[in-house]
Specification:
The structure is a single chain. The radius of gyration is 56 Å and the shape is rod-shaped. β7 and β8 (138-149) form a beta hairpin. The chain has helices spanning 16-29, 37-51, 123-129, 152-157, 162-179, 183-187, 191-208, 230-299, 301-317, and strands at residues 54-57, 62-67, 70-75, 78-81, 88-93, 99-103, 130-132, 138-149, 213-224, 322-323, 337-338. It is an alpha+beta fold. The chain is built from nine helices and eleven strands. The protein folds into three domains: 31-93, no CATH class; 99-108 and 122-224, 2-Layer Sandwich (Tetrahydropterin Synthase, Chain A), CATH 3.30.479; 228-320.
Amino acid sequence: MTPEGGFGPYGQSPSLDAIIQQIQQKWQSFNFKGSPIPILLVIALIVISLWTVWFTIQPEETGIVQRFGKVIRTAGPGLHFKVPLGIETVRTLPTARVLKEEFGFRSLTAVPGQRTQYAATSQSFKNESLMLTGDLNVIDVQWIIQYRIEDPILYLFNVRNTEKTIRDITEAVMRRVVGNRLGSDVLTVARVEVASEAKEEIQKILSDYKTGVRLVTVELQDVTPPDTVKPAFNEVNEARQDKERTINQAQEQANREIPKAGGEAAQSISQSEGYALERINRAKGEANRFLAILADYEGAPEVTRRRMYLESMSGFLAGLKDLYIVDSDQKALIPWLPMKPGATPPVEGGKK
């Protein structure tokens, strides 16, 4: 196009000077004399500039200031200023708040003072929570993760769709951890170990990807068998509980009876050893007594024989109560001889 508005030779496009000259001619054709439009435009420009020159960051947030898309600085909570008219823009992230992702269920917005409500179960939730265990059983694992944004710049610009990336990584790691364990262990005793192992692996992957995210916790909320096989799982669990209860009862009885039997055995052994020691000492004493009597007998046989006779008779008579002496030459019985202490024999003729 020529300066007069036509096209140049050979159909060439208009030059930049021709376009600028045409714009100036059209601008000069407007008559602003006595019109308030320029003043209103200036006032509107000033108001827009003043309105976009400041911004406020909330206490739990961090602001990322961008100039034509390039990150210039970060801003903490409070009032700040920036270049207006869209030259600098601000994006905020809740860096001081603990964020949460739910898997297998969704909780609705909680009202303070009321019980938390959960969304109705849907197939999309089941697709997240149904997992295959190491013993080829299917279980329904519902869990949550809590995390904080440590580096807002990495969170926004280093990974595309960071929130979805976190969910994909978490689900992949949890499926691998659960798949390496028995279903019965995940349902009962290994829940804490599964959560701890998953947390370590998820954090390692997030750090390798430089997502700027730090995990706070990983918790298994509910681990149950699928609805279609719950009755069978309940029967198996009841049988396993009965088995454990029987084993515990048997172990309790064993712990009670074995020490008792050991004590009785030790008591019998101690009594036997004491009896054996007593018999040995008694035998030694009798042997020594016999040797002593033998020595006395060899020195004075008659005296020793009489002494032994008298000792034997005294010991024998000490156990008698009454004694009756019968003489073959006598016509009547000799009155009885009382052996009790303090008793006196009757006197002949019936007088005492």
